[in-house]
Amino acid sequence: MSDLLHSLRHNLADVQQRIARAAQAAGRDAQSVTLLAVSKTFPADAVRAAHAAGQRAFGENYVQEALDKIQTLADLRASLEWHFIGPLQSNKTRPVAEHFDWVHSVDRLKIAQRLSEQRPDNLPPLNVCLQVNVSGEASKSGVAIAEAAAIAHQIAALPKLKLRGLMSIPEPAGDLDAQRAPHRELRELFERLRNDGLALDTLSMGMSADLEAAVLEGATIVRVGTAIFGARDYSR
Ligand SMILES: *Cc1c(COP(=O)(O)O)cnc(C)c1O
């Protein structure tokens, strides 16, 4: 077994165990949490090795980097999912609509409208999450909590999108209680929207440092990069 495959197997098992422990503590089925492996800055070979280790869902932040990997890994396309999770400019929506299965980072109606218009007719609707700026969100992207309901209803009406739920990137926090607070805010908004008639099933929250807090608050997708692939080197 190659060193890369060996270390990815080890790291994936470790992260799955963290998810399983947190799910158990929350009285949840660990199967209700999907692990999204965030492969940004890592080469196609790393994704191929993670796939060989059993990982199926991959998250990418940068359009061109992702398109290169999707093309390199075209032979695996039927057995993996590509999720776009980075900031999306309106002039970059077309390749995302054409090549991804999910977009977690929809943060305005215009982006959603373009993705819907540009989603090819031969593909199923694009799964999307509305990114919400919960209190103190580090990236400052995402809609305000007060605006979320109106935008969510408009996105849900677009023909080639399927609004699955909500996503957030809270500011890093040290202890578990501080990590849980913004995740709880997102979950409460999610519950309000569901009570309001939106058929949502996805809460995309939690990363390497706070995935336990996210699972305790109801995350259904955790987005994990560093704990799987190691530290990122942005200089390359
Ligand atoms: C990079 C990134 C992640 C993964 O972060 P890690 O701390 O490396 O686990 C998750 N979500 C988004 C939106 C990201 O950009």
Automatic annotation (TrEMBL):
Read off the Pfam families from this record. Ala_racemase_N
InterPro entries, sorted: Ala_racemase_N, PLP-binding_barrel, PyrdxlP_homeostasis
| Name under which the protein is recorded | Pyridoxal phosphate homeostasis protein
The function of this protein is: Pyridoxal 5'-phosphate (PLP)-binding protein, which is involved in PLP homeostasis.
Species this chain originates from: Paraburkholderia monticola
Where is the Alanine racemase N-terminal domain positioned along the sequence?
A: 11-232
Q: Which cofactor does it need?
A: pyridoxal 5'-phosphate
What's this protein's family per the entry?
A: Belongs to the pyridoxal phosphate-binding protein YggS/PROSC family.
Q: Which residue positions does N6-(pyridoxal phosphate)lysine occur at?
A: K40
Instruction: Enumerate the GO terms in the molecular function aspect.
Output: pyridoxal phosphate binding
Q: What keywords are assigned to this protein? A: Pyridoxal phosphate
